Amino acid sequence: MFYQLRIATEEDVPAINAFLEKGQAKGGVTLAERTAFVVMEDADGQLAGCLGLEQLNEQEGLLRSLVISDKLGQGHIVSLFQSVQTLGEKMGVDTFYVVANHSSSHDFLALMGFTPLKEIPESIWSSAHAKETLGKEQAVVLQKKGS
């Protein structure tokens, strides 16, 4: 199956929210000035994956709202992460954070270059999304420095 990556537009917001809710992630996404999403679509234009980047400040960004279809393999997910990181770097972001609340995702994130932090950076608290996720049990903040 062929999949295409692209930066989401305002027209994609309803589909992204429906996709997030179907994947049991929090909907209510908006493409605010400092938030962007990369979407992965199948050949029919149907969403198969999405990952957002919320810019916390000039150099720091929070990866958020990852939802993927069960049709996608690990290679597709890696492409999605790499695309968001490239987008972030174009925005000036060189430090990426992710809040993971499923221990099963830690191994994958480690493969992607993320390492767990013992202390939560102050900038994370500026994100309503991060605050909510950090309220869950087993929530861990991981960090990756850009290339």
UniProtKB/TrEMBL annotation:
Superkingdom of origin: Bacteria
Gene3D superfamilies on file: 3.40.630.30
SUPFAM superfamilies: Acyl-CoA N-acyltransferases (Nat)
Name by which UniProt lists this protein: General stress acyl-n-acyltransferase
